[in-house]
Amino acid sequence: MPDKALEVLGICGSLRKASYNMAALRACTELLPPGMSLRIASIADLPMINQDVLDAGMPAPVKRLRDEIAAADGVLIASPEYNFSVPAPLKNAIDWASRPPNQAFQDKPVAIFSAANGPLGGARVQYDLRKILVQLWAHLLPRPEVFIGMVSTKIDTQGRLTDETTRKFLTDLLAGFKDWILRVQRGKP
Ligand SMILES: Cc1cc2nc3c(=O)[nH]c(=O)nc-3n(C[C@H](O)[C@H](O)[C@H](O)COP(=O)(O)O)c2cc1C
What is the CATH classification number for the domain harbouring 115? Predict the structure, then answer.
């Protein structure tokens, strides 16, 4: 009998309806290696992080996201950079997930890619995300790195990722992520 498929949770750093990062994340569902599934989380309904709110009882959307991250074999983050760093909605989601007990990113395999209209493809957000997530004891896939520059030329008006080179980069990222998750699960990151 084949092993259970690895379940990956996708999180997008942009809340924009026509988000290029969300479009690329959706395209990933078509590019998965065998034995891996991808479900995309919603972070739009999270309240702004506030310890007083947490002390009064974990809000339902926060509990849902934390449970989804905890249950996933890995987390795939697609994000633009905002002002050279992490967009507020994504940082907010990570901050909520990070609160003890049972902080959700502990020992979690994570892969990142970014998309933006500039030539760097939002590269700088990736290094800030790595800094944040490593101190939460997440296991960040080191390579391949995928930066989708000039993204508006690669996604059509229906939100489909049409650029074959980018599809190949994401296919390679997902295959590498599968190996990485298995490696972490074997205790050999
Ligand atoms: C508040 C804000 C800050 C931004 N800062 C940057 C930036 O630092 N670098 C960059 O390449 N693009 C920046 N952009 C442009 C975004 O990369 C662009 O809007 C991109 O399409 C957003 O991703 P999305 O399509 O997934 O929403 C910024 C956009 C916003 C709204």
Answer: 3.40.50.360
